[in-house]
Amino acid sequence: MPLININQNNSQVSNDQNTSGQSPLPTQVNPAIDKTNTLGENMPLQRNLNVATNEQGIKEFSNQPNQQTTEQDLSNNLDQKISNLSVDPNNSVNQQQPEQIQPELDLTKMPDISFPDILKRAIIEEASDIHLTVGHRPIIRIDGALKTLNFKVISPQDSENIAKEILEGRKSIQIDDLKQLDLSYTTQDRRFRVNIFRTMGDISIVMRLIPKRILSIDELELPQILKELSKVPAGLVLLTGPTGSGKSTTLAAVLNYINSTRAEHIITLEDPIEFVFPKGQSLIDQRELGQDFEEWPNALRSILRQDPNVVLVGEMRDHETIASTITVSETGHLVFATLHTNSASQTIDRIIDVFPENQQAQIRAQLSQVLTAVIGQRLVPLPGGGRKAIHEIMIATPAVKNAIREGQTHQIDNMIQTGQDYGMSTLESALVELIRQGLISVQTAKEISIRPEELDILLSQV
């Protein structure tokens, strides 16, 4: 809408005598401008004059009363103009679009809640997660996006019945006392990682669908350096990334590579057990929290008496678990573990910061000695469906170890950028490679990048 230009000129005609003593000449009225402004009615550009002849036959001129335009009048005029523009059928910009009414779903005609049918739908559609929450219909996650299934709304009784079915055979767990619980569940020849928790007093359930087969490093198109890291005789390899970034799948591929290539004793501590490893060259003992052990630190201390070569720690959750994991790494074992962090430097800081300040110097020294690599992983959605894993790779070179020991973790990012000869790479370089291959857009890369300024520099060099 054009702006209204108010050019109001209210000239006054003086009745005083001029310096020559003669009567003033009448003000000339220009008929071209003696009209109202077409963009703002009732806003005169110049006053009109009354002309009268007195008794002596002399013409006299006087001003007509000027009607003052109030702010309310201006506001009303402006509102009217906007209203006219909005309903003008010839104005394509301001023309109002008819509101589209979405048809309401008839939930009464949808199928009743059936736990087996929900699982079947999730398996058929290759979902990664299932969400069952009271007051909502069942929801699954496919390639990172949520999709609502065509079932009735879940009632409190529905969720309780499903929880009882999942917990069948676990007599030590009383559902009335349950607040939150992690466990595994197997049905229809498929395994699920399950978290049961309460929300506003009702039971909610989230289930992670575990792939039926452990894919290899090559099938997952993971970095080949993972094969080299699996051959290290002792040390600590950390796999990091947000929840749902495929860390468990990657670790399963690495451990199964060891299982298929050499004879080792592998012990896993998991919460819960996700992938069940097939028989291979290695001996694999898988232990689940709550079923096979009660506390992480005690289980890690016991591992030293169980003659392992390779250890998997499902998640380093607190300073006791982290300290025990570092101790196992120091005693000549290869240890794999996970953390929910976004970058290598953040991973180091997270480990150090969980300890009291008076212990941090010691932990820095220990970590600098045992750390072998930090692999950060993200999943990138592809336009044709599916997701691809990309990685930030930090190898613990002498320079990196020194930065950890001296508390100079802010230098690690630069070391990764310049450490390609050691097999290092940044997340941004992996994103640029996907852009070059035409697999993702620049916009998608910027949404995933943790260092947008580095991404812009790399893109300018493409």
**Gap between N and C termini, in Å?**
43 Å
Q: On the 0-100 scale, what is the average pLDDT?
A: 83
Radius of gyration: 38 Å
Q: Residue share in helices?
A: 25-40%
**CATH domain class name of the largest domain:** Alpha Beta
Strands, total number: 17
Low-confidence segments, given as residue ranges, are 1-48, 85-96
CATH architecture title of the largest domain: 3-Layer(aba) Sandwich
Query: What's the name of the CATH homologous superfamily of the largest domain?
Result: P-loop containing nucleotide triphosphate hydrolases
Total number of helices: 14
| Strand numbers in spatial order across the main sheet | 13-12-14-15-11-16-17
Structure description:
It is a single chain. With 462 residues, this protein is an alpha/beta fold. The chain has 3 domains: 1-17 and 26-83, no CATH class; 108-209, Beta-Lactamase; 225-425, Rossmann fold. 31% of the residues lie in helices and 22% in strands. It is built from 14 helices and 17 strands. The protein has helices at 71-87, 115-124, 156-166, 225-229, 247-261, 296-303, 319-330, 344-353, 357-370, 398-405, 412-417, 427-436, 442-448, 452-460, and strands at residues 36-37, 40-44, 49-53, 59-63, 129-132, 139-142, 145-148, 180-187, 190-199, 202-209, 235-240, 265-270, 283-288, 310-313, 334-339, 371-381, 387-395. The strands form 4 sheets. The chain has a 7-stranded mixed sheet with strand order 13-12-14-15-11-16-17, sandwiched between helices. Helix 6 (296-303) packs parallel to helix 7, helix 7 (319-330) runs parallel beside helix 9 (357-370) and helix 9 (357-370) runs antiparallel to helix 10. It is globular.
